[in-house]
Amino acid sequence: MGGSDFSGFPDGPLQATVIPSIFFSDVLSGIDDPGELKLILYLFWRLGRKRAYPRFATRRELETDPTIRAGLGRMGDNALASALDRLVADRLILRRSIQLKSEPEECYFLNTASGRKAVSDLESGRLDLGQTVVPHPASERPTRSSIFELYEQNVGLLTPLIVDELTEAERLYPGEWIEEAFRQAVAYNRRSWKYVQRILERWAVEGKRDETGGRRPPRTRRP
């Protein structure tokens, strides 16, 4: 904060911004872009101040907001667009195009239970705000591997650290092994990636019996 005249937080009660603890334990270490970090902290603050449902910010609001413009101003003209794309790719926020009044507008929701519900309500028509969700063309949707879907369906929300581990596992093990390992974890009520990972590692060492009774080796590592 070179040149800042900030003199400290004032005495007395201060308004607080709620940030989930999991952000610090599982997400923060995976963020290496200053613009992405600044923007997600800003969105926690900005959307946390909104009382109406659903809570979201439009691209136009972000582009004209003096706080975020000052925060990203030294990072170049494309800093906001880059930070938004990173947050969407890391699944920290959800992006949808919505017809607001007469023009389509990019809208951003925190990837929280409330944010996901808002997106679901808008897309299904359960929430009628005079807005029409414009579906993203299929070619613009990020392609996602089934291992990520299996994790979200059976374990929980993805984090950047988990994404790295899942990507490596997908490189090492056949897809059918991964699916069966998740099924076993669910059957034994051990819904954790560590448990699934131990199953895969055991099969890689001991071999895994297929339906014919033989054993199959793991996928060969690629350099």
- Which structural class do you get from the secondary structure elements? alpha+beta
What's the tally of helices?
10
Number of β-strand runs: 6
CATH architecture label of the largest domain: Orthogonal Bundle
How would the global form be characterised? globular
The CATH superfamily of the largest domain is: Winged helix-like DNA-binding domain superfamily/Winged helix DNA-binding domain
Residue fraction in strands: 5-15%
How many domains in all? 2
Q: Give the termini separation.
A: 43 Å
Which key features would you list for this structure?
alpha+beta, Arc Repressor Mutant, subunit A, 2 domains, two-stranded antiparallel sheet, 10 helices, globular, disordered C terminus
Description:
The protein is α+β, with helices and mostly antiparallel strands. The chain has 10 helices and 6 strands. The protein has helices at residues 21-27, 34-48, 59-64, 66-72, 79-89, 113-124, 146-154, 160-172, 175-187, 193-206, and strands at residues 57-58, 93-100, 103-110, 132-134, 208-209, 215-216. A 4-stranded antiparallel sheet has the order 1-3-2-4, with helices on both faces. The protein has a two-stranded antiparallel sheet with strand order 5-6. α7 (146-154) packs parallel to α9 (175-187) and α9 (175-187) crosses α10 (193-206). It is globular.
